[in-house]
Amino acid sequence: MSRRITHWIDGQLFTGPPDRTAEVYDPATGEVTGLVDLADESVVDRAVESATAAADGWKRLSLSKRTEILFAFQRILSDRAGELAEIITSEHGKVLSDAAGEVARGREVVEFACGIPHLLKGSFSEAVSTGVDSYSIRQPLGVSAIISPFNFPAMVPMWFFPIAIACGNAVILKPSEKDPSASLWMAEAWAEAGLPPGVFNVVQGDKVAVDAILDHPGIRSVSFVGSTPIAKYVYERASSAGKRVQALGGAKNHMLVLPDADLDLAADAAVSAGFGSAGERCMAISVVVAVDPIGDELVSKIVERMEKLRTGDGRRGCDMGPLVTRQHRDKVSSYIDAGVEAGARLVVDGRDLSGIDGEGGGFWLKPTLFDHVQPDMSIYTDEIFGPVLSVVRVPSYDAGLGLINANPYGNGTAIFTNDGGAARRFQNEVEVGMVGVNVPIPVPMAYYSFGGWKSSLFGDTHAHGTEGVHFFTRAKVVTSRWPDPSHRGVNLGFPRSN
Predict the structure, then answer these.
(1) Domains of the chain, with CATH numbers?
(2) Partners of 21 in the beta sheet?
(3) With a threshold of 0.85, does the pTM exceed it?
(4) Nearest-CA neighbor of 91 among 32, 149, 37?
(5) Maximum distance among all alpha carbons in the chain?
């Protein structure tokens, strides 16, 4: 029988009204493995009530005690990372090594948050006026909500909640209903680490829960990662309700390969970054921009590497697993049809499922490569979010740069070259938030911010790093003067520093 996956509120599993549920699948078999409860407004209300009550006591807890709990959570993540990786693979489909890498990258943000006593230090200015001191402090917002996507059920929430919690906030996490179980594992780990009940809550659900979060007056901030249309919706609706919002949207990441580049290195990078996690990454490379005359040779090297890839069940040591759902697999496959119809050259057809190392009912699509793609084709304009790599030919660096900057997305990009001057010029001129130089997936370390430009981000604050600390706190400036007889008397004039 399918297991039931429900909410976590006030430090324990919370079974809300069972009116609506959604099926959770094992993507490698196509079998239903669970039913997840879909919250209504009353469940969101209950979570906010719990978080609000917990936030007051949590923010008053000493920084030393908060840090102690963060370190305990970090140890649990480190010691039992394999458990969480297996859960991710069972519901998302990515291979175990990729799932383990996801957990490791999320843990880096927890480790960054363990330094919160230093990160929350304010400033102090003595004697700004006679006998007057001025200083700044940063205080938590209260209740912060996180709405996370299916592609990174552990890492993306960990971009946000370790910092939010470290800063003294309570958190409500709304994970994707496609792979919800990782959220409950993390909730139980927080409880084991000693986090007080109500500081970390999980509300399972769909759009009903999302809208309730965006509108709820008790929630002070919303952090979101997903597609650009939904990011824009979240930003507009939540900000109109007076909330602080960071909404990270979609991507169409380009990799510019110059004629002087190491083509073996570039081909390795294109395959790794294009097909890792079946292309279901917001930082995946989906467009290789080849500056001719190296296009033919680069495509040939990419094909050589693709022929050696093994697609199948992520628990069998394969290179690439299935897509997350049958509906998403069919959508990605339809883009391959559209690319062929538009006249792009289909070099490797992922719809050929021969040699799959997995069950027949899995949501399979093998790595796909198009060449001679034009910027007006849907396989170029749309975020496919699957294992479809497009090669666009350009005559020069300037043409490649112009193509990238003209794209409405600005999440991540990379340049492959042995010319330091070209690399430096590219990092200055490209209109993208995260740039790699001979690095195909330039995901910043936890102490730097993660986020794109243009339609890849709504709001002015990126994820994690010091920007995360600023997002989850508010600044307060205090001006103080202790009683002194020399300052007595009434003075209606504008205060001056003297």
Answers:
(1) 3-249+456-478 (3.40.605.10), 253-437 (3.40.309.10)
(2) 37
(3) yes
(4) 32
(5) 90
Rounded CA-CA distance 73/78 in Å is 9
Residue 495: predicted pLDDT: 72
Contact 246, 391 (CB under 8 A): no
Whole-number Å distance between alpha carbons of 339 and 388:
10
Average pLDDT score over residue span 8-32:
94
Distinct helix (H) and strand (E) counts, the chain? 16, 23
pLDDT for 17: 75
The 3-class SS string of 78-147 reads HHCHHHHHHHHHHHHCCCHHHHHHHHHHHHHHHHHHCCHHHHCCCCEEEEEECCEEEEEEEEECCEEEEE
Residue entry with tokens 């990782």:
182
- Interhelix angle for 420-429 vs 397-406, to 10°? 20
Q: Which two tokens stand for residue 124?
A: 């102090």
Q: Are 60 and 104 in contact (CB under 8 A)?
A: no
Q: How far is the C-alpha of 221 from the C-alpha of 43, rounded, in Å? A: 18
In one letter, which amino acid is 467?
A: E
**Integer Cα distance of 245 and 234 in angstroms:** 8
The number of angstroms, rounded, from the C-alpha of 219 to the middle of its chain's C-alpha atoms is: 20
Catalytically annotated residues: 282
| AA identity, residue 237 | R
- The DSSP-derived string for 400-429 is HHHHHHHSSEESEEEEE-S-HHHHHHHHHH
